[in-house]
TrEMBL record:
Name listed for the protein in its UniProt record: DUF868 domain-containing protein
Family matches, as InterPro entries: DUF868_pln
Organism whose genome encodes this protein: Mikania micrantha (bitter vine)
Pfam families: DUF868
Amino acid sequence: MMDLISCYSQYAVQVSESSSCSSYTPANSCIVSPNLIPSTQTAVACLYKTTLSTGDQHFITVTWHRNATTQGLQITSGHEPTTLFRLNTHSGLFRKKKGSKLFEFNDSKFEIHYDLSSAQYGAGVDPVEGYYVVIIIDSELGLLIGDMTEESTVKKLKAHKQIGKFCLISRKEHFSGNTLYSTKAQFSDTGNWHDILIRCTGENEGLKYPVLQVSIDKRVVIRVKRLHWNFRGNQTIFLDGLLVDLMWDAHDWFFNPDTRSESGSGRAVFMFRTRSGLDSRLWLEEKTVKSDDDQKKGFSFLVYATKS
């Protein structure tokens, strides 16, 4: 698949008024038959930006993954990610699910403390409760995720370490299976969690052409007809007081299948990107603008969808 920014710059197709649904679309118009089973989530990668008191910045990616034989997490760092830590937590294997690791990377001292021994998982691959992961960078608490913030080990680390600033920049979810993708997303720290349903229908459902439909909280926000011709495009929606650019690239579903994947099919990408209400530019135009304003750069939520 070609570079996502380049493909939108060259081939973006804006959905017309007639092919997209307004915010007043009836709530029950996107209800999916209970016989349809959503695709399987295989990995979630969360990118965090950490700023220490010295002004040093670190970009840390925490990736949760699961397949038929393995389950666990991987932590990488840097713009060109280097693996710092890997853990297999599959219940069928005797693995240490609680511990710590100390090492040096790029002239910085890292400490990773984790406890996944009581982690509870929902439908996704990342735990929803009963865990923590703490990363110490140069004696500062650089990242803390999980709900066990009152656990004794975490309390001691917070009490004896200076706490840096960290924020979630993007979340990427990988799915494999059919063309029905169900997930949840929060687009701001104070915003609500929203149910997101992405569905592509086709000839096997009585249609003469493929149709893409994206619903948020059971309301259709876009409906793209003849997806095999409108395989790339964008639409702006309004959510939680934010402008959110919704973009899709389904080119490889139709014209460039990835024969290397297990399913023998290509991969589509769906991106939700927040931006400032005062900023009229699409996110792809920001590549020409130099700015350190994290609010303007926004938060990105991506769905990578491989269909069988």
